[in-house]
Sequence to fold (227 residues):
Amino acid sequence: ETGVTQTPRHLVMGMTNKKSLKCEQHLGHNAMYWYKQSAKKPLELMFVYSLEERVENNSVPSRFSPECPNSSHLFLHLHTLQPEDSALYLCASSQALAGAINEQFFGPGTRLTVL
Amino acid sequence: SQKIEQNSEALNIQEGKTATLTCNYTNYSPAYLQWYRQDPGRGPVFLLLIRENEKEKRKERLKVTFDTTLKQSLFHITASQPADSATYLCAATGEAGTALIFGKGTTLSVSS
Fold:
């Protein structure tokens, strides 16, 4: 596998379920990101990790819980979500944090539907 | 708060024409801007980066300009093709310097 991969590609869950999104990057990058993309809205940054340490958390509800066990893997744990959380969740990575002029490489996304 | 604005939600042009997309930024001065392409159901793909001290950057049929006076970047696709149809996103580093802030994007449709 090359680039950034995300699983699952599609997920339907009820409001009481617990699920996890997985992201893996095969690029040797040190920074990883979670974004939420809703229709007609800009990409919303959720979490930023650099060398497995969380460096930014943009006021994301606690029902979203990130985990970065190593520099290649990033998870987003979901529990008791709301229908408005339905969106495309994108993972990205970059060589270093974006402030150092680094392009971001995105995965294909997980299309999440909360019923 | 810092904003990246792409005011045109959609742009429709004919094949062979030049497409021009606009990106404006407010409340801060990013050191550089990036442009990405996103196809339906896929993640964005990086196209070009331009620094504030560069007036213009080119890559094949793509050209990006950066006007710090107007606080604006223009993205041009010359000799456009139906395969260029996609959503184009403008992005810049936020003040925290850790991640990118994205505009809503402009969806380009090129008809043959």
